[in-house]
Write a structure and sequence with these properties.
Helices cover 75% and strands 0% of the residues. The protein has 160 residues and is an all-alpha fold. It has one domain (25-148). The longest helix has 44 residues, at 7-50. It is globular, with a radius of gyration of 20 Å.
Length: 160
Amino acid sequence: MEEHITVTQMALVGVLSAVGAMWDKIGWLILLWAVTMILDYATGTLAALRNKEWNSDRAREGIWHKAGMLVVVIVAGLFDVAIKEITAAAGIVLPFDMLALPIILSWYTITELGSILENAIKMGADNVPDWLKKGLKIAGDTINQTGEGGFGKKEKGGKK
């Protein structure tokens, strides 16, 4: 029996290898975010089909939105690498390996989970506990405050 390796199979092996190489630090967050992105797109499509609102333009916009998120995640990762290399070259030792990427991945994951919940409600899940909705909002707000806590905040009196 002759076996053929497809481009999709090679890409999957490459992605899984890259995630595996980073697994101890950030791999779980990347995997969780990727799964929530897929689930969000799938549940959004199902909700639109159920409500007879499916539209190819809107579906395409969803894909572009996900692609934009991927670009932001890549930029956050590159930012972390740049900061680490620049500070190392200057002889500065930081108490962390990554800063932006875990915050971005966490924020996007929580946002995706909220969107999945909204899609589930549109699909007919009308008994979603309020504590779950509130918990996702609190988690998202907390991550947002963590990310913005050290960047560009003005002190009292107008000084940065």
